[in-house]
Please model this.
Amino acid sequence: MSQTSQLAVSPAKNRRAIVITAVITLAAFGPYLTGSIRTEQVAIYGYVVVLAAIGWVRYRPNLYGGGVAALWIIMLVISVIGVVAPVANTSPYQFGRPLAGIDNLLGPIAILAITWALTGSTANNETIVRTVCGITVWAMAANTALEIWAVAGGHIDLSSWHGPQTLALTSAERLEVMGRFCGIFSQPTDAGLLFSIAVVAVVHLYRQRPWLLVPVMIILAVGGILTVSKTFLFVGLPVGIYQMIKVRGNRKSRAVAAIVTLLTGGALAQTSILPAWSGEDYLLRLFTMDGSLELFTAGRYGSESSLSGAVDAVMSIAPFGGVGAQGLAVAYDSGPVEALVMAGLVGVVCYVGITLLIVRAAWKSAPEFRRLATGLGLIAAAASAGAPALTANRAGTILWLILGLTALSSRSDRRDGP
Model:
């Protein structure tokens, strides 16, 4: 019997929790509503206000969740101070948008607050988690369909999902010219991260139904491959395949299923089974023997790192406290580098500490959640090297939502009733 099933469940509160998490999860896949306001922002901050207003706030993080929140709040405070009392910017880069930076840091805290309110009021986390996983898996399966349609030459106006800025639209169009199709996402990093979350979620969701697990995993594999996201190819997909093999039961048959998934996914993505895919050459370059570090990391690391500009600028301006939530108008596709820019070396220490706590909390979570939480913790840690995984739009929302419900709340590791 699962740990959570031993606790008394309030049917009304459980239904309410399911509705709240379902709305937030669906909102994470929603469009921009107006300007730079996203559907998920309205849902997240709206529910925080509602839960506080009705007094339904029994925040119950566990020790790891409390530690993660404390370190995250330290980063947030330092970043806000950097906005209120900005440093003299002597770097070659302009400041960015402070509200966007504050939202990146405030969003995860808001999501954790919601999950703690929910887990403090209901015991049936398994039902809630399955709701989030189910919506995520099938939303990403639908995104695969959008990608295949684009490969076939079809066109659907997704500008409301890609963002209000011309730059974002140009980026999405440029990626399709390269053969990288992302559906509702404007960046392969975001798409790859969510496909990675989805392949772990589908194992949790259908681990006892291999007849459904394998075909859905193939669909997700195709979608992830079409993005040519290195996060998905080298982190998310291997983790998902490994977890599929390790599910209890006939492991030999599951190993065969994993091989079939890989071969079928690759075949569908780069052969005549689908219309001619222009991204095949770009994908195959990643698996050549002469692939360089610059190629594998898209220039983020190596002799001429794209991250070095941001790092050098911050270390020359404000090494310990960073430049604040506004950040710098330069690419810093890395979680620790983003933390450095906004909160300096203190922020880097906090970010590393948060990542370690998440991985540890996932490993110590309840047995029914351990595989799911550990997979997501590993993905978050590994993906952070090439993307700000914990603050990514859409993907970050789903990541924090599931981790908050499975690893960072008091109900995730409790064996006794309240």
Observations:
- The first helix runs from residue 11 to 28.
- The mean pLDDT is 83.
